[in-house]
Amino acid sequence: MEQWTWPPRYDETYRPPEGQTHWFPRRETMPAEQRDELIAARIREVMAYAWDNAPFYRRKWDEAGIHPSSVRTLADFEKVPVVRKEELRADQAANEPFGSYLCVPPDQVKHINGTSGTTGRPTAFGIAERDWRSVANAHARVMWAMGIRPSDTVLVASPLSLYWGSWGAYTGAERLGARVFPFGAGTPGQSARTVRWIRQMGVSVFYGTPSYALRLAEVAEDEGIDPASLGLRAMFFSGEPGASIPTIRARITGLFQAEVYDSGSMAEVAPWMHLGAAANEPGVLCWQDLVYTEVCDPAGHRRVPYGAEGTPVYTTLERTSQPMIRLLSNDVTRWEAPSAERGRTYPFLPRGIYGRLDDMFTVRGENVQPSAIDDIVMAAPGYGGEHRIVISRETAMDTLVVQVEYDPRHPEAALPDWAAHISDRLRTVLGVGARVVPVRQHTFDRTEFKARRVIDNRELLRRISAEPLPGSAR
């Protein structure tokens, strides 16, 4: 395969001819079974490298009775124990600052990204220059498949901070040869400036989260500007479900009249665009020669058959500084077998990553993904732009309430029927009843990054119930 080496080495001057569909035609279209044999050999190389250089992996595999030489097939690889995020955090706490899974001398780390640490200890991503270039080359490949070309101007509209998404999009567009505009997001009033700069600079490609794209469309309309007049040709997204969820996708394409591409997995396994669309349609391909993806049973972590739902487990095939080997994502997806009809012979996730096991909640015995509610609510005629999902337990039974903003042009007299219709749709799809409460437009704050719409009050009620009353003997 083109430039299939370990450690990875790329010709930084290479770029496909303008009319060529694939960045690496051989790697992207070869029979999947043949690629799998090469991937199994690469996995042994990566495992041997980690065994020699990362005490974290040697210790973990020793305890499981596994040696890299024993992994001869992808089926053998399923026996390798998964790595959990909490293990990485604990290892970094014990081995500051990058953990004992860092496989290069610390002075070779030239870039630092990481998690925010809002839900616990932040995780540091130590990235060697070789890995930075590998990510750039990988992302350029996927962006080329999206139809992005050197003649484009790419606006990076997510925060330029610790967040890997922004930098991954930036370095990929730069490697592809496009003009890159790292505008960022998050500053008050910046969305209005984003609209003006898009027009002024002739931006043709937008990168950000689906939530921010919808926010940007609202701001443009408030400024008296039709979002479709901004001239965006293509928009690619990561960071949250949406670009492959039918109603969210339809809203974005309807507002901007642009092609929409989904992408993204986890920052820990950058190049995170290894899950990336190659056509203007819902779903993403698993670019298996960049990061080997297994969709697994959440309990046993063995691959589920094509057509089934599971959680992705990722193995980086080009990372040398902090390789991830069978990292458990806790995301939720469904995969389909490779098909040459899609133009590339990779497995396919028709709905992308559409939820997380952590985010899924149970109401009266039914498992519910927030994205399923989003899909129904946003499709309602008269939807006002935002909603909140509130779960409570005031008595013995859980209650599910969905507060939905309505368009002010929607007749208020018709709101009870409107809410009842949405409620019926939710019951049919979710299998559980939900009370829909219409609220005025702009009741809820908008986001310039990732949307957080679920409010679960049950844990708060449980804590309050467990607290002793003042003066009690408990």
UniProtKB/TrEMBL annotation:
Q: Which organism is it from?
A: Streptomyces armeniacus
Protein name in UniProt? Phenylacetate--CoA ligase family protein
User: Matching InterPro entries, A to Z?
Assistant: AMP-bd_C_sf, AMP-dep_Lig_C, AMP-dep_synth/lig_dom, ANL_N_sf
Ligase as UniProt keyword: yes
Q: Which residues form the AMP-dependent synthetase/ligase domain?
A: 84-310
Q: Which GO terms describe its molecular function?
A: ligase activity
The answer, when asked if RNA-binding is one of the entry's keywords, is no
Which domain of life does this protein belong to? Bacteria
What are the entry keywords?
Ligase
AMP-dependent ligase C-terminal domain span: 365-458
